[in-house]
Sequence to fold (297 residues):
Amino acid sequence: MEKLHGIELETLWNDMPGRQKYEVVKQLVGIEQKFASTRFMSFGSLYYTQDIVGIIDWQSVHLSPFYLQARNPALIDFDGPIPEGLNPIELPPNFDLMSSDEQQKAKLLRSAQSLYKLYEVDTRRRNKSVFRALQYRETLPCKITALAGSLFSDGEPMVEGMLMAVERDWTKVVGVGPDGQPTVPCPLAFSKRDKELQAVDEAQWTQGVELMETVLQGLGAYRGWDGWVNHADYDVMKARLKECLAQFLDHEAMTEEERAAWIAAWPFTDQSAGSGVRRYIPPQLHTANAQATAAAR
Fold:
């Protein structure tokens, strides 16, 4: 594997004018269209000898249904509401009453929303298969299918809540017959008590994930290596872990009993491997222990 020449686009993206960003987005749609329309008849390396000169990082490629693989480009992701319909993106009605900082944020949000919508429109026009896959990702059946394959990391309470939504909306899933009944009997049944317990579990799970995210941000470690850090960074990370634990306990533990419970459930452990690389976080315990730590409250 060789490093491609050039500058990473993300380092320039925020300073690029809107029209230039749109030109990049149109190129991305074209590349996606080529990939979506290409059929591979055998296994092996993937490259185009003329159109594309390099493919970046194929190590995470996997086989799965198209609707589970389709994604919006990371460049157009933003924090804020996704615009609906085809109407122009407008500034807030109270824009003139905002402070200069608020106006700047509103302009940046409108710019991000407009670029997102331009990508969506161009994809719908030129790449219908990707557009349909992206639309399907927002449906309940797709969300259940996606989460069912990652129960350990995304949580049983979330999947169970979606299954309860399927039971509630079953007639929308299978349709209604002439007798007014579902065309297919619903195989799911949840009692009132089941739903109450699920609501509590999901709230605790969400709280645990948020707490875990706070700790991971405090550590500032790269997460793509399943918790492994270079030997050169080990001592620094070990000290940072100790500091994070102390801060976490001071903030979350109200009694000695709670302090002991948090320490017992703390998933970030020092596991030396003796191979030049050491692991400070168990790779499979992040969110699983988040639920346990939330329940400890």
In short: DSSP finds 13 helices and two strands in the chain. Residues 192-219 form the longest helix (28 residues).
